[in-house]
Each structure stands twice: as C-alpha cells, then as structure tokens.
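Practice record 12: protein with S-adenosyl-L-homocysteine.
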Amino acid sequence: MSLPRARYDWTRDELARLLDGEPRYRVDQIWQGLHEHGSEPGEWTNLPKALRARLEADLPRALRAVTESVSDDGQTVKWLWALADGRMIETVLMRYPDRATVCVSSQAGCAMACGFCATGQAGFDRNLSVGEIVEQVVMARRSAAASGQRLSNIVFMGMGEPFANYDRTWESVRRIHDDIGIGARHLTLSTVGIVPGIRRLAAADLPVNLAVSLHLANDAERDVLVPINRRYPLDLLAEACRDYVDATHRRLSFEWALIHDVNDTDRHARELADYARPLGAHVNLIPLNPTPGYQVRGTPPRRVREFADLLRSLGINATVRRTRGTDIDAACGQLRAAHATG
Ligand code: SAH
C-alpha cells in the first residue's frame, strides 16, 4: 500500500507545485504555519477560507493518537500513535520545570533484535517517513507549550534504529533544525552502533550529538545481547566513534542499561572504562526497564551507585539516569507491546 503524503512529508518545492496559481508568498505562510506555529491548516486565518479547507484535505496528519498516558505527576507523557497504514509507534515527552525533551521514533519496530528491548522483541515493520518523524516533534512541542514549557531537546531514542533509516532521519533532523529552530547541540541521535551511519554523521554538516547504546564492552558478550555487534564489532565501532569526535568536537556518550548480573559487575565497569576513556566518552547509566520478553531484572539501586562510583574512580564521567514513566510502560516499545497483548 502506498501511503498518502502526510502533512510534514511535503517539501517546499512540492508545496509550491501543489499551490500552482496561488501567490508565491502562500508557500512561506504555509511553511510557517506548519513549522513555526505547528498549528492546523484550519487555524491559518491569514489564508482564504477555501484554501484552508483544501489544505486540510491535502495535508492530512500522519499520526492518530491511540492512547496518551501521563505519569510521574504529569511530568512524562507518552503517546501511542497509529500511522495511516495502521502501524503503531510511540513518542515520549519528558517535562522539566520550564523546558521539555521529546524522545522520537525513527522506525515502526526495529530489526536490531537487542534481547532486553521491547521494540527489538517485536521485530521490524517499516521505516518512518520524514513527515512521520517531524510530526512527532510538532505534536510534542504543542503539548509542552500548552503547559508553559519550551521544547528544548530532541532525542532519537524512541522505537527503531535511526541509522537503519539514515536518509529520512537526516532529512527530519534538518527540518527540525532549520524550520522548527532547534539547535544542533540540542539534537541527539542514538544508535546501536551502525558504523557506516556514524561515519556519515561524522561527515555531516550539522554537529548533532551522538549517543551509542553500548551495554557491553567485550565482543563475546555483546555479540549475544546486541546481535549487530557481530557485523560491527567493538574495535570498528571505536574507530568510527573516534572519527566522529575528531570531526565534530562534540561529546560522545555511551548508553548502558544496567542489567543485573549481565553487565553490572566490577569487571564490566573496568571494560567499559577502558573502552570509553580514550574516546573521552560520557556514560549514561540507565537501570533496565523490565520487559515481558526478557527475564532478567534491572540492577538494584545500591549496585547502580557502586557501579557509577567505580566508573568515576576509573576516570569516567558517568550519570545515572532516572527511569521515567515505568508505570506507563515508557520503556522503548513497551506501550505498543502492552496494547498488542490486550
Ligand atoms: N536503536 C537506537 C535508538 C532506540 S533505543 C539505539 O539502540 O540507541 C533507545 C535507548 O533505549 C537505547 O540506549 C536502548 O538500548 C535503550 N533501551 C531499550 N530497551 C530498554 C530497556 N528495557 N531498559 C532500558 N533501556 C532500554
């Protein structure tokens, strides 16, 4: 099935062709309405009424909210969206006192099959289009603004592997940067470690942040937990990370979901420190969010602190991330999984 072209899939040139016969400034007005205001075509009162009605039909929304769940005293909002073809994706908004961060999906499902990840357990559906990615940001910004927060940061840590959908992801990054107006320093791409994607990012013309989901720093164990490691083993990954750091001078971070007895021993901390130190990488420790398809627990809080302290004593900058939204299944892919099973 070919999908209808959604609202944010249109480029400026395509809109100009769609509006053939209208004054040229209409494209700018529409572009502004879409990206600066993030409002509905029906609200664009600077346009004639008939044109507004036509645009409502020609620029359909890509996302239909199936559920909107709120947790952490209203600080975390998670949407489960249905796409035009019925596929489902998730977006999470994390609110702070005066700003907010949105976590967006780049694919419906994921083919990377990391054992502990709910999205990986369910498999791959399809890549998202540029419009499906950008609209997540616009909807989140609207929700943040309604409670007085400025959407300040975008992280590609929702469903999917951004570098397995590189071109559309990058086009959406450009759109979020150029047209929605979020600075490169406030944009973070998170990858399981797709080396060609990291190399492309190193050569790209916007210095966005890179997070690599490491979780293990020896090939024997990482091959099992993060299967793509067999294709892009740790030495190749480190070389690509080095290129990124040299080219962009941005800080690299490693994500490490702490899993009890799987990657939280002293040995694991030492392996991680040895891997991260030469790259000057920052480590984000995230206690595992339990998922139905993986019968291992997260590291208990006391051990999380010990692990972080050990890393610091080995010269590594480490931050313990608070898990957000555990009660609304906000771990990657969980909301959709819960929806599918009833
Ligand atoms: N594919 C990309 C981005 C999506 S996953 C990547 O791998 O980076 C976003 C982050 O959530 C990754 O660091 C991933 O490892 C982590 N994650 C997935 N499932 C998790 C779980 N159950 N608990 C904690 N973190 C999880």
